[in-house]
Specification:
Elements lengths: L1 H19 L2 H5 L3 H18 L6 H24 L1 H7 L4 E5 L2 E2 L1 H6 L4 H10 L8 E6 L5 E5 L15
Antiparallel strand pairs: 1-2, 1-3, 3-4
Length: 159
C-alpha cells in the first residue's frame, strides 16, 4: 500500500510541475527539456519504490500512475469543470491584429515564438491576424481575414 500512496503523490507532483512549466513549453520541448523530463522520471522512481527493485513494485507503481491517468481522462470526458483545471483553457494572444503582450508574458510565450508560428502558417503581418489562440496543448491557432464561424465551440475570452 505504501507504493500506491507514494506513486499517487509523485503523480500529483509531476502533474503540478508540468502545469507550471507552461503551455508553450509543453507544446514543443527542446532537447534539453526532453532530457530533463526523462531524467526527472528516473529520479522520482527512487521516491516511489525506494530500494525495491522487484517486478511487483514496479508494476504496482506504473499501474497506479496509469490508473490515475485513466481516471483523470474519464472525469474530463464526463464533466467540463475538471478539464479546465487539469488541462487549462485556450487563451487569446492576438485580437484584431493587436498582440496582447500581458497575456504573452503571463503564458511565458515569446513574441518571436508567436511571430515564427504565424510565419509557419503563411501569415506575414500581425495586423492580418484576426485571432490567435494559444491552445491547451501549447499549439497556436490563427484566424485571419473575414472568415466565417467554423461551427466549433465559442472562442475563448480575450485576455
Amino acid at each position: 500500500m505504501d507504493i500506491v500512496i507514494r506513486a499517487a503523490i509523485i503523480f500529483v507532483i509531476l502533474w503540478f510541475i508540468t502545469r507550471l512549466s507552461g503551455r508553450s513549453t509543453l507544446g514543443e520541448l527542446s532537447s534539453f527539456e526532453l532530457i530533463l523530463f526523462i531524467t526527472m522520471g528516473d529520479m522520482v522512481a527512487e521516491g516511489v519504490v525506494p530500494q525495491d527493485y522487484s517486478a511487483t513494485a514496479g508494476i504496482l507503481a506504473v499501474g497506479t500512475m496509469a490508473l490515475l491517468t485513466i481516471s483523470i481522462s474519464w472525469v474530463n470526458s464526463r464533466w467540463r469543470r475538471p478539464s479546465t483545471i487539469t488541462h487549462g483553457v485556450p487563451v487569446v494572444v492576438v485580437h484584431e491584429g493587436e498582440v496582447l503582450h500581458d497575456v504573452l508574458h503571463r503564458e511565458r510565450l515569446g513574441l518571436d515564438d508567436l511571430l515564427a508560428a504565424a510565419r509557419g502558417q503563411g501569415i506575414e503581418l500581425v495586423s492580418n491576424i484576426r485571432l490567435a489562440v494559444l491552445e491547451t496543448n501549447g499549439q497556436l491557432s490563427f484566424f485571419s481575414g473575414d472568415q466565417g464561424e467554423s461551427g466549433g465551440s465559442a472562442p475563448p475570452p480575450v485576455g
